[in-house]
User: Which sequence fits this backbone?
């Protein structure tokens, strides 16, 4: 029996990250009786990189969320990782449980968990946050590959797992990283007391100082929790991340 049959945990993956990178977290949640899925969006391993904007990503994620709400009456906890914070935040815009209840609609998003994720205001982008320049190894358009992946993402994961998952990463459309963010759910009053940020203190891809700045510059209140991990806390600190997510499901459902 699921512990909460109305709530599904939706993981919005980071750039370059296919679903296999979250299989341990999904399995841990499902084994404990929670329904959990990894959302998909078109800029990751894109077939159409010239049209794969952040807005298109958000629309794809939003449709997956709406299907769970409207077809099954589900409440959702969005767990957004890395770049996933931008399209995930946009996908959740206007879909809070509170707002849908007021409209007489089924389901809704109970809260947002940003896991070392980009908190980017409407109209901004990853490119803008980086001062208008991407890393030297990234192209200016088309598809890009994350490199050096092990150093950036998997430095605190065991060597065999790091090598295996580094080869599992997929190309990502540059346009999604450069295009402006749509309106963001985290800026809505409906999420007061329902925003959490997992700050990864060993992260080399999105350093702790940048994480702090993103949270501060958002201008809203987050429940910030430190995790002694690199960019993939769901790998190196699986049990701690699992416990935090379960705790947020219980806390946000009760609000």
Assistant:
């Amino acid at each position: 029996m699921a512990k909460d049959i109305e709530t599904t945990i939706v993981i919005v993956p980071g750039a370059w990250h296919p679903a296999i990178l979250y299989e341990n977290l999904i399995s841990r949640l499902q084994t404990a009786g929670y329904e959990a899925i990894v959302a998909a969006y078109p800029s990751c391993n894109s077939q159409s990189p010239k049209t794969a904007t952040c807005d298109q990503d958000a629309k794809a994620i939003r449709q997956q969320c709406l299907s769970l709400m409207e077809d099954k009456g589900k409440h959702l906890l969005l767990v957004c990782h890395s770049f996933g914070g931008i399209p995930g935040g946009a996908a959740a815009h206007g879909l809070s449980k509170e707002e849908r209840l007021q409209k007489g609609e089924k389901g809704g998003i109970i809260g947002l968990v940003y896991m070392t994720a980009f908190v980017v205001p409407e109209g901004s982008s990853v490119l803008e946050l980086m001062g208008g320049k991407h890393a030297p190894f990234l192209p200016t358009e088309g598809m890009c590959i994350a490199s050096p992946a092990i150093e950036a993402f998997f430095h605190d994961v065991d060597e065999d797992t790091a090598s295996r998952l580094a080869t599992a990463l997929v190309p990502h459309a540059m346009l999604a990283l450069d295009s402006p963010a749509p309106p963001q759910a985290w800026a809505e009053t409906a999420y007061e007391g329902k925003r959490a940020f997992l700050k990864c203190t060993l992260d080399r891809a999105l350093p702790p100082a940048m994480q702090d700045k993103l949270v501060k510059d958002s201008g809203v209140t987050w429940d910030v929790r430190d995790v002694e991990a690199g960019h993939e806390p769901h790998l190196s600190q699986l049990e701690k991340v699992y416990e935090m997510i379960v705790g947020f499901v219980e806390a946000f459902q009760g609000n």
Q: What stands out?
A: The chain is about 35% helix and 15% strand. Strands lie at 7-12, 35-38, 75-81, 108-115, 143-144, 172-173, 195-200, 223-227.
